[in-house]
Amino acid sequence: MASFSQFGNDLYTGERSFNIVAKRKLWYTIALIMVLSAAIVPFLRGGYHFGIEFRGGSEFQVAGLAKLDTAPAAAAVASVVPKQIPRISTVGTRGVRVQTDQLTDTASDQVKNALAANYKVPVSSVSASFIGPSWGADITGQALRGLVIFLVLVAIVMALYFRTWKMSVAALVALLHDLVLTAGVYGILGFEVTPAAVIGFLTILGYSLYDTVVVFDKIRENTSNNGDSSPRTFAESVNLAVNQTLVRSINTSVVAMLPVAAILFIGAVILGAGTLRDISLALFIGILVGTYSTIFIAAPLYAHLRSGEEAIVRHTKKVLVARRASSVATTPAESVIGTGTGTGAGSSASAKS
Amino acid sequence: MARSTPVKKAWRSLTWLLVIIIALVGLNGAQVLFAGGAWAPKLALDLEGGTQIVLEPQLTAGQTVSAEQLTQAVSIIRQRIDASGVSESEINTQGSQNIVVSIPGKPNQDTLDRIKSSAKLEFRPVLVTDVAPVAAVGGKGASASPSPAAVVDPNLPSTPSVKPTDGSDINYVTPALQAKFTTFDCASKAGLATNLAPAAEPLVTCDTSGAYKYILGPVEISGQNISDASNSLVANSQGATSNTWGVNLVFDAVGTKKFSDVTTRIFPLTGARHQFAVVLDGRVITAPTANAVISNGKAQITGSFTQESSKTLANQLKFGALPIGFKVQSSEIISATLGDSQLQAGLLAGLIGLILVVIYSLIQYRTLGAVTIASLVVSAVITYLFVTLLSSRDGYRLSLAGVAGLIVAIGITADSFIVYFERIRDELREGRGLESAIETGWKRAIRTIIASDTVNFLAAVILFILAVGNVRGFALTLGLTTIIDLIVVILFTHPMLRLLGRTRFFSEGHRFSGLDPRALGAVYRGRAQFRAPMAAMQSRSGGSAREAAKRQTIAERKAAAALPEKPVTPRTKGNDS
Questions:
Q1: Assigned domain for B410 exists
Q2: Whether the Cβ atoms of residue A198 and residue A57 lie closer than 8 Å to each other
Q3: Chain B closest CA to A1's CA: distance in Å?
């Protein structure tokens, strides 16, 4: 793994540098396309499919069973509505409860008959009724209220900590990007939105902000004393911070994603649809996008937001003038192939020896 | 010299960690021994199943339930259940008039009462009071013969002959009401079913113990005018706390005004009319005398409360009365909807994920990866103890979503170590010795860790306070893992590195230590001494703020070299070997 730590060294010293901040127009375009498609495509595919917990549905109760077994119920529902994932549980010592999405009257009768046939009981011992949502509008309303208050507070806290509201704005824009994309992928794959998925989104919300704060703290450190004497422009300082934290970003997202990927794999491949798949998909995409957006959206946007400030404009101009003067003094070839300079070759050679 | 201080600090931190773990084990043990707790966390509805209670509205003839009333009732019941812990119950409507409450475990009578009772609170002035006949308390034998007396002569006038002027006006007591009062039997169910009266009319009822019966005036203040309710021990006239429990009410503006008016009116009255009654779901819980005019909008209800029942009532009053009363239609045990296969698969996946994390850490950080793994183990132990403790103390239950949340927390916890290790590596690249790299790296890293954890903690606290249902359970998990992250990185990871930094294996930068300065690009200058390959040394004294300036891009370095006013130390290939 020497090559990876070498990679880290190079990023740290600036030996190797990804010019992320300067290409902000490219990232903005990509983000815009992604966000738009994440917002539109799910609706072209018929909109989000909310689970029984949000919309209510049909409930069947089978009574008077000699033996409790849920498999016949699953088979009965599958025979009528194959795409449906029913929630089945046993009730008391002689009953089975089956909950599905709201079915049409015909489908409901068919399920009733199938249940009776599979359990070998008369149709009269199967009852059907409608159930209301268990995740009602009140839960959603309270959660949204909490979220709005949280976002306002977190924006204030970040503005105070970083001493600039522009970081708050950049972080919140990146957060919005993450949530829209995660929700979009969810909708495009046509997965059912369950309470577990919503909890997954909330986790992503926390993770995305967390990741942004870690990188922003490095940016703050690099730019805090970026006075007139700095040989770098503001945008370059931001870019250096992003590069210096790149190894950390990669390591953290890999470590965070490994367990989630394991859950996703086992949940989707072995168990099929269910809570595990729902929540781990939201988390997997969210972590990926959360790490990406910090680097490619939050940081360039922050540099962009501050680029109009008078002091920064003045400093940038000064640095560029000085640099132009130096590039006239040095040979043109050298300024094109940066690695040819003494320092660069020197440090990498020493590391390999 | 100063060498010993970090070591001492490190041992002190580790001791604190041990104290915390022992305290958690002790608290858990106490729960197991004295409060019926367990050493394993309880599981939520989706994994363990629970009880399904079907509630049916108690309706008088001709009364119907609207969909709106049902939704409102579901919301109020949910708040009541949430107020008693974080159990992640499921509440929904069924058909056109039933409500289904699914709660983990087996509910006791208190829980059922808390869920289904309407909690309709009314303040009514007392008009007439009497001791209930002994027969009511004694038994069935005595009350069997006079039962025909329950039929009130329908010819008695039931409208007041003189229109009552205020709530305490005795003219409310018509001959019909008086007859009903005389025959009213506190023990009979029929009597209880009829003790409902419209708010504007007088009411005949008994107190909760069945010892007294009352004729009460129309409703003066209802539960809607209560803005807050809490329970506490009652203070006596000397200000010392007694050991009786009471419910403290705070009225809103309207309630304050009305309460002040009522106490002003009945304060000078005598006899029964000097009292006002606090009526809950049609029964008098207490009927105190008005000893003063109360105009501050605060009142305290005392009665035969226990700590538990006073808390229940306070919560019921706070979240409002149910629009209708309910009775339990059926209460049956239900199985888990997800079952063992999902939990086992989840745990298996978690285990596989953890093994992958271990492998990745070892590859990335060599021996240092072992510190990551040990830290994760410590945080797993603390998390387990916390979750178990919350489970037996506050009814917290682990759902599958909760398990997934804990697995994701591995990432956030590991990030703290990664941020820290990367900082140390940065300092090593600068040419610092390992010990000083650890101390400097720590100062920078802990800032970042605290800042980012604050964001998560803020989310957890706000969502826990404001949200209801499953979201609250999530908030608790998030807050818990954030705090544990801080505990572990401060009290375990950092002290461990301080101690390890003193071993030869690490301080000499062994190839497998993960902190090999040569691999990190610093230049070896002799045993345990390194020098930066670049212009880093010159401004060493500049402190953290200026260090950023040393980390330059290629173009910048060239530019800097060209600037005449900023000389840079000569950089030659001679530094290499």
A1: yes
A2: no
A3: 7
Count structural domains, chain A: 2
For residue A347, being part of any structural domain is answered with no
Residues 276-295 of A with CB under 8 A from B: 276, 279-280, 283, 287
Picking from A132, A214, A350, the nearest residue to B448 by CB comes out as: A214
Instruction: Specify the number of domains making up chain B.
Output: 4
DSSP letters, B367-434, are: HHHHHHHHHHHHHHHHHHHHHHHHHHHH---B-HHHHHHHHHHHHHHHHHHHHHHHHHHHHHHTT--H
CATH number at residue A304: 1.20.1640.10
Residues of B in contact with A154 (CB under 8 A): 455, 458-459
Contact at CB, A154 and B459, closer than 8 angstroms: yes
Task: Return residues 378-407 of B near A (CB < 8 Å).
Answer: 400-401, 404-405, 407
Are residues B462 and A2, on separate chains, in Cβ contact within 8 Å?
no
Do A34 and A182 belong to one domain?
yes
List, in order, residues 6 or more apart from A132 with CB less than 8 Å away. Answer: A56, B70, B71, B74, B92, B93, B94
Report the CATH number at residue A61. 3.30.70.3400
> Phi-psi region for residue B277, left (φ > 0), alpha (ψ -120 to 50) or beta?
beta
B33 inside domain: no
Q: In terms of domains, do A107 and A28 share one? A: no
Q: Do B404 and A276 touch (CB under 8 A)?
A: yes
What is the spatial distance between Cα A223 and Cα A217, in angstroms, rounded to a whole number? Answer: 10
Contact criterion met (CB < 8 Å) for A257 and B411? yes
CA distance B411 to B482: 11
How many beta-carbon pairs under 8 angstroms link A with B? Answer: 390
Record the tokens describing residue B415, joined without a space: 């990030």
Cα–Cα distances in Å, from B257 out to B167, B288, B364?
A: 15, 19, 70
ipTM of the complex: 0.78
Q: Given CB atoms, is A337 within the 8 Å cutoff of chain B?
A: no
* DSSP characters over B83-97: HT-----EEEEETTT
Task: Look at A255 and B341 and tell me if their CB atoms are within 8 Å.
Answer: no
Task: Please name the member of B364, B452, B459 whose beta carbon is closest to the beta carbon of A214.
Answer: B452
Closest residue, chain B, to A195 (C-alpha): B470
The answer to whether the Cβ–Cβ distance between A217 and B94 falls below 8 Å is no
**Which of B476, B453, B415, B480 minimizes the C-alpha distance to A154?**
B453
Show the domain range for A116: 57-131
Domain edge (last residue) among B298, B333, B368:
B333
- What's the pTM value of the predicted model, to 2 decimals? 0.72
User: Is there a domain that residue B306 lies in?
Assistant: yes
pLDDT tens for each residue of chain B, 577 residues long: 445 677 888 899 999 999 999 999 999 888 888 877 778 888 888 888 888 888 888 776 667 788 888 888 888 888 878 776 666 788 888 888 888 888 887 777 777 777 777 777 788 888 888 876 654 333 333 333 333 444 555 566 666 667 777 777 777 778 878 887 887 777 665 445 445 667 777 888 887 777 788 888 888 887 778 888 888 888 776 777 777 888 888 888 888 888 888 888 888 877 778 888 888 777 787 777 777 777 888 878 777 778 877 887 787 777 777 777 788 888 888 888 776 677 787 788 888 888 888 888 888 888 888 888 899 899 989 999 999 988 888 778 888 778 877 877 877 788 888 889 888 888 888 778 888 888 889 998 998 899 888 888 888 888 888 877 777 888 888 899 899 999 999 999 999 888 888 887 777 767 666 666 666 665 444 444 444 444 433 333 344 444 444 444 455 555 545 544 444 444 444 444 3
In terms of residue numbers, what domain contains B556? 540-572
Residue in chain A closest to B355 (alpha carbons) equals A259
CB of B80 less than 8 A from some CB of A: no
Task: Provide, as residue numbers in chain B, all residues whose Cβ is less than 8 Å from the Cβ of A224.
Answer: 545, 548
- Contact (CB<8Å) A130/B95: yes
Q: Rounded to a whole number, what is the distance in angstroms from the first to the last CA of chain A?
A: 15
